[in-house]
Amino acid sequence: xxxxxxxxxxxxxxxxxxxxxxxxxxxxxxxxxxxxxxxxxxxxxxxxxxxxxxxxxxxxxxxxxxxxxxxxxxxxxxxxxxxxxxxxxxxxxxxxxxxxxxxxxxxxxxxxxxxxxxxxxxxxxxxxxxxxxxxxxxxxxxxxxxxxxxxxxxxxxxxxxxxxxxxxxxxxxxxxxxxxxxxxxxxxxxxxxxxxxxxxxxxxxxxxxxxxxxxxxxxxxxxxxxxxxxxxxxxxxxxxxxxxxxxxxxxxxxxxxxxxxxxxxxxxxxxxxxxxxxxxxxxxxxxxxxxxxxxxxxxxxxxxxxxxxxxxxxxxxxxxxxxxxxxxxxxxxxxxxxxxxxxxxxxxxxxxxxxxxxxxxxxxxxxxxxxxxxxxxxxxxxxxxxxxxxxxxxxxxxxxxxxxxxxxxxxxxxxxxxxxxxxxxxxxxxxxxxxxxxxxxxxxxxxxxxxxxxxxxxxxxxxxxxxxxxxxxxxxxxxxxxxxxxxxxxxxxxxxxxxxxxxxxxxxxxxxxxxxxxxxxxxxxxxxxxxxxxxxxxxxxxxxxxxxxxxxxxxxxxxxxxxxxxxxxxxxxxxxxxxxxxxxxxxxxxxxxxxxxxxxxxxxxxxxxxxxxxxxxxxxxxxxxxxxxxxxxxxxxxxxxxxxxxxxxxxxxxxxxxxxxxxxxxxxxxxxxxxxxxxxxxxxxxxxxxxxxxxxxxxxxxxxxxxxxxxxxxxxxxxxxxxxxxxxxxxxxxxxxxxxxxxxxxxxxxxxxxxxxxxxxxxxxx
Length: 766
Prior knowledge:
This protein is an alpha/beta fold and 766 residues long. It is built from 22 helices and 26 strands. A six-stranded mixed sheet has the order 1-2-3-4-6-9.
């Protein structure tokens, strides 16, 4: 009969120790490791079950994870909390900031850093040591349920925005956990699904953002994902966690597993998983058994213990932080509002915006019940959500009272109905609220009584569930009817219509975008969303957001559209849990997903193939105009130095986001994208007639493509083109430059041989 170790282990923390013991500090970690018993080491690298005795009730409700304390050695518990858009707690109020997708849409590293700083400050107040963010997986498909939480379809935009966020948080002495490493690009069967992709695609698209984030910010931790990668669990992949992440990228911090991702415990530790969360006694016992039978060596365990201790000594908990549980919510609201307006994207404007305060007919249930953010790890218990109705009222707009009464009553009814029917699930995601059918009479009355119509369409998603094509990407019949009927009646009366998209990711727009006079993509803008939307609609803020992902004309226009569970209707996305009888069966897009598009994700596919889109990557309008001039590009040493002068040619102040795209010669490759984003920046607020020169410095190695056969990055010699402008399809300026000799950067080993990591990935696909 197997005897539990835990009754014995608990004695460690209540028995007196006869000899003097060292106490942890940043300079004596090796001595602490040497002083620890095997049992203590095993406990330290496995998170505690915070909802079980003796820990139950000792941490704030909703706390993500906690490490095991070892008082005799001066090792405290540290706390990890969810937080891509703010700290997630079940009861305590914290700020809900705009989501990652909106943050990336700002194309503003400084703005991302400021949000990180604000979240870092709230972390200190709440006693949090590590924020489990940023989420930075690639937006491979428009329907991924967590797209709102991530940044972009492009790894450079994702990686550099993530790095800015990380630097902001960690400037406050709080850690981050960049996630989910790697190729975790769908929620359907997220625990057991196998992402199948070639090595070039893995390196150029799905690990590149993490490489850039590590280079520019060194997050304290990186979270290993749940999924298989070419038949191997990422948490058990030494090729991924050690060879690529640590040896090639130079990551110095701790690797933490995604929660409850229990795998082969000794294999996880050997691979480079240092801290196993959320922790289970069986994992601790497995470590001790594996040490005893030799399947886990002491060196691997000591490395993991060392990484945990190195993390602990940097944390607020170790360094004397005194949480007061009173975050500065006013400061948080101010920061949330500023960022929200920076990342909203004006998709259409027939000269009606900015709008002056006017009598306004406000349509759509989400005009009155704004979606602040997504669900799951990104859910935040905020003090208040400013609806668009509130925001318009705050700015002096007069709202149609009859519509307000109707919609507010309907929104309350739907919310109660969802609650009573148990269709609200924070972790999986709230159900979509159906749109209200508005009678022709009421629309006609509204057109007579008001000067302007605003319609809000909403989409919500969350962790553990992907969006569904027919129910989510496509507009529903009553939504189309609402847009058509309101536009027809208001236009007949000589009045204008604005559509606001309060969405978690792209929706189909091609079939209806010609109808309204203006379209503003507000994303999921955080708790101050209503005020921020009106800041843009009313012209207090000139829109400067640019799309961080492509809006296709049709879902199936996107490369790899068929290789995604776009029509999966299970109530739970973890297929193996719902249907145990199916475990191990090769169900396409569920048990496995082929990344058939390879490196041609998003704009790389559309631009290279000349395929039209609804709105391209980098698209976004302004209330002013900009002119590009004096573009230049040259290679100096190991850096590409490129720049362009941007001039405000309009009548109002505004900011302009600028992308640096590079078209590279083929070199030894059969194909390359027609252009790829390599850097970006944003001007300051330019007054009419004012100019600013943006200069970009890009390591030449970042112009490289990955040669899978030789396992090396290759920067080809030849003539390159540098394109300037955020819109990937329409560069505003161009300059050429040359690289006179090829540049090779090896992963590991001789140039003629693949790295250990690449051999491992390649063999797994045979």
